Automatic annotation (TrEMBL):
Short name of any one Pfam family annotated for the protein: Amidase
Keyword Amino-acid biosynthesis part of the UniProt annotation: no
Protein name: Amidase
UniProt-listed Gene3D superfamilies: Amidase signature (AS) domain
Enzyme Commission number: 3.5.1.4
Ranges of residues in domain Amidase: 23-183, 273-380
Keywords, sorted A to Z: Hydrolase
Source species, domain of life: Bacteria
Source taxonomy: Bacteria, Pseudomonadati, Pseudomonadota, Alphaproteobacteria, Hyphomicrobiales
GO molecular function, one term: amidase activity
């Protein structure tokens, strides 16, 4: 059994606050939370998972609005948490600062880039965690660590004071161990959340063919048990069409925001991030322009499919968390396959919630629901009313 203190040392950065509270009353009074180290807290540095940034950054002059909301609702910050370098990762593997421990599967990665927040919440070191999600950075660690996690509708929560990674994708999200807590946090941002009301569930049958067979076979019965659902084809244009739309847009954003900083002479970057920054500099403007149009077409089709009451059911990730010792080549292969699932909400700027569904070979595996724009409250209400799914353990 991994020691809680060891988990805390791996999850929290040394340069953040250990206790910060602005009010002792409010909707979140008595609760504690962690903040991903891409998000500013006044008086403290944001290192972005990079040693040069930690060395050079000035303390933030203002606290990000996404953090002010829970603070003003009475919650207390207990620390800032580790992240993949520049948010360029899906696993939580940071060669500069280490890998936060996955309390639910200590020999495996916690998922990223909101890795430290997921680790801290899963270990019970705080009640909820604040993170960011561009291409899966809330959803994947939620799945890997057995948590509830919400990627919010793009633009719904301010990203001021948050490191811009890919501004046409970046969102703020949050993580909790149970759906009731996640809903409570959501109410601090969105106001009172009523009953979920009638739901029209849409099961993306072809999406369940993307995971490895053991994952797909374990998740599909759970998905069908939630409520009667209409089976639909999600990838009508083909999976590659979605990925070929996502890549140039996300890479172009990355180069636009971080390319200049990352390529300064003498800059210290891990090999994987250095290669990703170099790749982002090579995006063909014609491919970028084509992807802009494709993104709008995909968004229009999916929003029409969802309507006002639809929720799309898909797997969250395609496989179990990689082992902590997995080589970079294995990480790249994993990322590309899971990205086929996470790029859906990212491209279409939609809210998505991960729900812990089953255990496969002793590891948590999540199921996701996607709603139409500003459908965050419906997802939170549905998950809270659904309650914990009876956990079934399946061999890999």
């Amino acid at each position: 059994m991994t020691d809680v203190q060891e988990i805390a040392l791996s999850a929290f950065v040394a340069h953040g606050p250990t206790s910060l509270q602005m009010r002792d009353e409010g909707a979140l009074a008595g609760l504690t939370f962690a903040v991903k180290d891409l998000i500013d807290v006044a008086g403290y540095r944001s290192a972005w998972g990079n040693p040069d940034r930690l060395r050079d950054a000035e303390p933030a002059v203002a606290t990000a609005p996404s953090v002010l909301v829970p603070l003003m609702a009475g919650a207390r910050i207990v620390g800032k948490t580790h992240t993949d370098e520049l948010a360029c990762g899906m696993f939580g593997m940071n060669p500069h600062f280490g890998i936060p421990i996955n309390p639910r599967a200590p020999d495996r990665v916690p998922g990223g880039s909101s890795s430290g927040s997921a680790s801290a919440v899963a270990a019970g070191l705080c009640d909820f965690g604040i993170g960011t999600d561009t291409g899966g950075s809330i959803r994947v660690p939620a799945s890997f660590c057995g948590l509830y996690g919400l990627r919010t509708t793009f633009g719904r929560i301010s990203v001021a004071g948050v490191m811009p990674m890919a501004p046409s994708f970046d969102t703020v999200g949050f993580l909790a161990r149970d759906a009731a807590m996640l809903k409570r946090v959501g109410e601090a941002y969105f106001g009172t959340i009523g009953a979920a009301g009638p739901q029209r569930l849409l099961l993306a049958r072809d999406a369940f063919d993307i995971p490895v067979p053991a994952i797909g076979a374990a998740l599909l019965p759970v998905a069908r048990s939630l409520a009667p659902a209409e089976e639909v084809t999600l990838f009508a244009e083909g999976v590659d069409f979605w990925l070929d739309t996502f890549r140039p847009l996300q890479l172009h954003d990355l180069w636009s925001t971080l390319g200049g900083w990352a390529t300064m002479p003498g800059r210290v970057l891990s090999q994987a991030v250095e290669e990703r920054i170099a790749l982002s500099a090579t995006v063909d403007p014609r491919m970028f322009a084509k992807a802009v149009i494709q993104r709008e077409a995909l968004t229009s089709r999916l929003v029409r499919l969802l309507g006002d009451d639809g929720m799309l059911i898909i797997p969250t990730a395609h496989d179990l968390p990689p082992l902590r010792t997995a080589p970079v080549s294995a990480q790249v292969a994993f990322r590309e396959k899971t990205l086929a699932l996470t790029c859906i909400a990212s491209l279409c700027r939609l809210p998505q919630i991960n729900i812990p569904a089953v255990e496969v070979d002793g590891c948590p595996v999540g199921l996701s629901l996607i709603a139409a724009p500003r459908g965050d409250e419906r997802l939170l209400a549905f998950a809270a009313e659904l309650g914990a799914i009876p956990s079934a353990s399946v061999p890999a």
